[in-house]
Amino acid sequence: MPIGSIMGWLMGLVMGGYAVEIPMVSIPAGSFWMGGDGGEDTLPRHYVTLKGFKMGTTEVTQGQWRAVMGSNPSAFASCGEECPVESVSWNDIQTFIQKLNRLNHAHYALPTEAQWEYAARGGTTTAWSCGNDPSCVATIAWYDKNAQETIHPVAHKQPNGFGLYDMNGNVWEWTKSCYTNTYGSPCLKQLKTSRGGSWSNSVDFMRTAFRVPDTPESRFYMIGFRLIQMEAVSTK
């Protein structure tokens, strides 16, 4: 049974379905300076306060996706059940979340950009969660210098300060937020923002503040996602 504990499986039977385990880490409430150090679209740097929430320890895996959806759309399906699911659109993920919420009797969602960046920083203020020296990125991320042009199983690099794996590299991660040219400016059409960089990107794309736009129907073999629970509220 892919990515599901015995306890989760039994709970699913009692509730009339098969629960799918999504391991979570509790992210504490706090404040941080968001943006900067990643390009014009990461400006202006601004102060954000968040309530506590839970976030998936890893990116959603191919096994978890298959357990909910019954199929695996990944271009790198041969990588295995413990590899991140990719080639899923923002719209596809909304369907996945609806089904998962019914199965687990829970409330999952994509993180906002603020939630994602706060969690990815893991309490740091540096360009990368591992520091300001780009040579440290190899310890936390699969990227163009070490990935050998493919994705990898989750949680094989060092976690950040909050205990989250692969927040940088492996696959980009969709967020709930729309894309803007700068923070506070209007949303651009229907574009959504992805974060974190992927196996095919250089070290600069691994910067915690870096962000890119994609249309919600786009499917790429470089983009996956991770989930949160208890959606946080930001104030400025």
Which structural class is indicated by helix and strand composition? alpha+beta
The SSE string, one letter per element, is: HEEEEHHEHEEEEEE
The name CATH uses for the topology is: paralog of FGE (formylglycine-generating enzyme)
* Beta-strand proportion: 15-25%
Structure write-up:
The protein is of the alpha+beta class and 236 residues long. The protein has a single domain, classed as paralog of FGE (formylglycine-generating enzyme) (Alpha-Beta Complex), CATH 3.90.1580. It has four helices and eleven strands, in the order αββββααβαββββββ. The strands form three sheets. The protein has a four-stranded antiparallel beta sheet with strand order 1-4-10-5. It has a four-stranded mixed beta sheet with strand order 8-7-6-9. Strand 6 and strand 7 form a beta hairpin. The N and C termini lie far apart (44 Å).
Keywords:
236 residues; alpha+beta; paralog of FGE (formylglycine-generating enzyme); 4-stranded antiparallel β-sheet; 4-stranded mixed β-sheet; 4 helices; 18% helix; disordered N terminus; disordered C terminus
Explain the layout of strands and helices.
Elements: H1 6-15, E1 24-27, E2 30-34, E3 46-50, E4 53-56, H2 62-69, H3 90-104, E5 108-109, H4 113-121, E6 172-180, E7 187-195, E8 211-214, E9 223-224, E10 228-229, E11 234-235
